[in-house]
Amino acid sequence: MAALVLLEAIAIGVVAPFVMKSNKSSSGTTAMSSGSSGGADFVEKADANCSALKAYIATLGKPKTPAEIELQMDELLPAFWRKILAQSELAVPRDKQTTARQWMHSMAAVGGDYEALRAAAARRDATAMQQANSSAGAHATDAARLSKELGMHVCFQ
Questions:
Q1: Which residues contact 35 (CB under 8 A, 6 or more apart)?
Q2: 93 φ, ψ to 5°?
Q3: Rounded to an integer, what distance in angstroms lies between the CA atom of residue 63 and that of residue 146?
Q4: Which residues pair with 93 in a beta bridge?
Q5: Confidence class for position 38, pLDDT limits 50, 70, 90
Q6: Structure confidence by residue, pLDDT tens digits, 94-111
Q7: Global confidence as pTM
Q8: Confidence of residue 122 (pLDDT cuts 50, 70, 90)
Q9: Which domains does the chain have, with CATH numbers?
Q10: Is the dihedral of CA 108, 141, 76, 133 positive or negative?
Q11: How far apart are CA 22 and CA 109, in angstroms?
């Protein structure tokens, strides 16, 4: 029973960073270099990317076993990396460049943790799954802090 509770906690932890409040939509992106438009456009598009990922994650269900977590990660990771790429293509206001780079690194670190979780689930290694989930939580906390600094209301909130 304790193992099942642990696995459920790990599965919840996997998707928790994307439990978001908003379903804003936006169209189009530009390069993540010096943005000439205001920060509101960047924030709106970044939050829209996160909202789209949240909607996709909601379709994946709630895995309870390592095999189910592995399958969920197989489905989630390509979409996650596509959204990270979409975030990197946004025009960031000049005064937010450094924070945006840190934010991108934090989100990529979460993705790396998800990759580690998937590999651990494939090996049915509960200890490694727990470690990957713990690392993902720490990186998601950092991404949430940076999202707030950038003015976002959805990403990692």
A1: 41, 42, 90, 91, 92, 93, 94
A2: -55, 145
A3: 29
A4: 35
A5: low
A6: 999 999 999 999 999 999
A7: 0.76
A8: very high
A9: 39-150 (1.20.120)
A10: positive
A11: 24
With a CB cutoff of 8 Å and minimum separation 6, the contacts of 147 are 46, 103, 155, 156, 157
Task: Quote the mean pLDDT of the chain.
Answer: 82
For CA atoms 108, 110, 113, 118, the dihedral sign is negative
Residue type, 153: H
Q: Give the angle subtended at the CA of 142 by the CAs of 50 and 92, to the nearest 5°.
A: 55
- Length, in residues, of the chain: 157
The 3 state secondary structure assigned to 66-104 is: HHHHHHHHHHHHHHHHHHHHHHHCCCEEHHHHHHHHHHH
Please compute the mean of the pLDDT values over residues 45-57 and round it to a whole number. Answer: 94
